[in-house]
Specification:
alpha/beta, five-stranded parallel beta sheet, four-stranded mixed beta sheet, 22 helices, 16% strand
Length: 509
């Protein structure tokens, strides 16, 4: 009997590494040894593989079986190595072809009856195999549609271990089994949320449009019933469809999170709205064993909405400070570091005080000034300094409600077209740079000699900087907002009015 080789994929975050699975059969006392830094779930593969092989009609030899997962120092998690281990052992036993097994990447979990169960993370795993040069990947039938989203690689879908052995040349009679399928994912339909549903709040609608055009973060402050949540829920509808690369990344994160992907890539920007009891780990990701993406990663290329932001734990909110700047979440553990994309738009909503009535014209606030300051102080200064647009939202009056027909609101479709045109303008301006959106451009580039605005244009923010009303970071963020407003207006460069409007959106609290 020879040593058999095949390949699987170990995922660390969205990064996949090919793992060489080696199987050896010796004449010692019967046992099954699995080495190569497996975790508890992977260690249990010994019993799953042996039972699945027996119930599939191709039992493993009653000898000492040694399976090595190489590189040995790389941590390996989960049950997705079951199929590769079974194929390597059967090839070493001479049941199936050594050469056939060696050229295929195997992914899948085995049930005791021999059927293959779909696994989470199949899309990033197949993508990693493709980038590593693999030509063929074998996956469970329930993951076939998701695996087929990766171009340039042949996907072989099998329902059972017996079918996999037959494909590799095993002399077995086919037996039909019911494949284990994932829940069917229907094509997304319109959620019915339209910008035209909003009455009044023209400043907030403009702020959302500017935020969508430039990828800016937003903070909305106002009493209950002012429409903060209603506004935030409509921001994803203003964003353009995702490009092919972004759609693949968003779908990969969904797959890694255990969410259904279906047979087509997600083309609409995601929306994540965690509850205010969320921990820092649930926001940015983590886990003691397998490192999973948090809400910030799942919202990448979309919107992360934090309703009742002061009710979140301050440590959880401050954990977002680095991802807001870097666009990447890095989770450090003792034996590994996982990286997740986190280029999302943050939108936070908050009441002005614990009772929520401070500043409302139709209600009285019962909170003391100290209590109001303490409540909003839960949002740290460094976090708020990273929010480009900070706007106060007021309740709509009865008079404004009756006059709604005289002031028709823009629809989401029309606003999205304006946003798409503005992003096209900024993309052309930034075509020779590594950035795509105004919110990504560093201030040093905007203040460079070739792009510096005239003193008369920036007079308002120059005064605010001199008086301490703006930090240097805030100054650069106003410049970015000014460019986004100019792009929406079709102007070649921002004017003094654009910069003044940007300063208002930055300091409208």
């Amino acid at each position: 009997m020879a040593i058999a080789h095949t390949t699987a994929v170990a995922l660390l975050g969205l990064t996949g590494t090919l793992v060489d699975v080696e199987a050896d059969i010796s004449s010692n006392l019967p046992s099954f040894v699995l080495i190569g830094l497996p975790d508890a779930a992977l260690n249990e593969a010994r019993d799953r593989v042996r039972a699945a092989a027996t119930n599939s009609g191709c039992p493993l030899p009653n000898r000492k079986l040694t399976v090595n997962l190489s590189p040995a120092a790389l941590p390996k998690h989960g049950s997705g190595f079951d199929l590769a281990i079974a194929m390597a052992v059967l090839a070493a036993a001479g049941v199936i072809s050594l050469d056939s097994v060696a050229r295929v990447v195997h992914l899948g979990e085995l049930g005791l009856d021999g059927r293959l169960r779909p696994i989470a993370g199949i899309l990033p795993a197949v993508l990693a195999a493709s980038r590593a040069g693999a030509a063929i990947v074998m996956v469970p039938a329930g993951n076939a549609g998701e695996a087929s989203l990766v171009p340039g690689i042949r996907v072989v879908a099998v329902s059972s271990l017996r079918d996999a052995a037959i494909w590799h040349g095993g002399e077995l009679e086919p037996i039909a089994v019911d494949a284990i399928e994932l829940p069917r994912v229907e094509n997304p339909v319109d959620d019915g949320l339209d910008l035209s549903d909003i009455v009044g709040n023209e400043d907030a609608i403009e702020a959302l449009t500017v935020a969508a055009a430039g990828g800016h973060h937003v903070f909305l402050l106002g009493p209950p019933g002012a429409g903060k949540t209603m506004l935030a829920a409509r921001l994803p509808g203003l964003l353009p469809d995702l490009g092919a690369e972004d759609a693949l990344e968003v779908s990969s994160i969904r797959s890694l999170s255990g969410l259904p992907v279906g047979a087509s890539l997600a083309v609409r920007p995601p929306l994540e709205s965690p509850h205010h009891t969320a921990t820092a780990a649930s926001l940015v990701g983590g886990g003691s064993g397998v490192i999973r993406p948090g809400a910030a990663a799942r919202a990448s290329h979309g919107v992360l909405f934090l309703d009742e932001a002061p009710e979140f734990q301050p440590a959880a909110l401050d954990a977002l400070r680095q991802p807001l700047e870097a666009g990447v979440v890095s989770i450090h553990r003792a034996n590994a570091v996982a990286h997740f994309p986190a280029r999302f738009q943050l939108i936070m909503a908050a009441n002005p005080c614990p009772c929520g009535q401070y500043g409302a014209t139709d209600s009285d606030c019962v909170c003391t000034p100290h209590l109001r300051r303490k409540y909003l102080a839960r949002l740290s200064g460094p976090l708020m300094d990273r929010i480009d647009i900070q706007l106060r939202v007021s309740r709509v009056t009865a008079v404004r409600l009756r006059l709604g027909d005289e002031y028709p609101s823009i629809t989401s479709a029309a606003a999205r077209q304006r946003v798409t045109d503005a992003r096209q303008t900024s993309a052309e301006r930034l075509s020779e740079t590594p950035w795509r959106l105004n919110s990504e451009v560093p201030g040093a580039w905007l203040r460079g000699k070739d792009r510096r605005l005239s003193p008369s244009t920036t007079a308002s923010i120059d005064r605010a900087l001199e008086r301490g009303g703006l930090t240097m970071r805030g100054y650069d963020r106003v410049l970015r907002l000014g460019w986004s407003i100019a792009d929406l207006a079709g102007a070649a460069t921002p004017t003094a009015d654009h910069i003044g409007r940007a300063l208002y959106l930055r300091r409208a609290l």
